[in-house]
Design goal:
There is one protein chain. Helices cover 80% and strands 0% of the residues. By secondary structure, the chain is mostly helical.
């Protein structure tokens, strides 16, 4: 019975996230953080960063992947299924209903204005997630350089984010191997 209650809590939390978030997966990150870390304490801040890294590196939307990983962490396979269904179902239902009225929707100028305002709010949600999760990132020269290179490559040279994630991960491994070879006691990383 307790497991069913946990599955229902996962479904309800992620359904709420899916229902009240506009702007895609990245706009859901602050809400996922609030539900999974702050409200339910299913995962820690550090685990949230790990979930986001894995979610970004695997195929599919970051919100669906995050829900799946968190659900699995909380209640195994059925937890993953509950959280994934919860976050995806609102979008499916909303699109199904909107598709019935899409031609009439185009005539309502005020509705276009509503969506313009929502898009502006989504930018704030994403920025909030960057600031909140950025506080959990280690403050090292290596991390700062990787962030700068990745930002420049993605923003100005249109380099694939997936490629940047793979290269950044490889750079982290190479860095730790070099540190371990030079000084085996510092292999855990001194952050410099």
């Amino acid at each position: 019975m307790k497991k069913n209650h946990q599955l229902l809590r996962l479904f309800a939390a992620f359904f709420k996230i899916g229902l009240f978030t506009f702007g895609g997966g990245y706009a859901m990150i602050p809400l996922i953080h609030r539900e999974a870390v702050e409200t339910h304490q299913w995962i820690s801040d550090e685990e949230m960063l790990d979930v986001l890294a894995i979610s970004e590196a695997t195929p599919g939307p970051v919100s669906i992947n995050s829900a799946t990983f968190i659900g699995y962490r909380v209640a195994g396979f059925w937890g993953a299924a509950s959280a994934t269904l919860g976050v995806a179902l609102p979008s499916f239902l909303i699109i199904a209903v909107l598709s019935l009225f899409i031609m009439q929707y185009q005539r309502f100028t005020w509705l276009t204005w509503v969506f313009d305002g929502i898009r502006a709010g989504v930018v704030v949600l994403i920025l909030n997630a960057v600031i909140k999760l950025g506080k959990q990132v280690p403050r090292t020269n290596f991390v700062a350089i990787v962030i700068l290179i990745d930002f420049l490559a993605a923003s100005f040279f249109n380099v694939s984010v997936i490629l940047l994630l793979v290269l950044s991960g490889a750079a982290g491994v190479v860095r730790q191997l070099v540190i371990a070879r030079r000084n085996p006691e510092a292999a855990g990383g001194d952050g410099k």
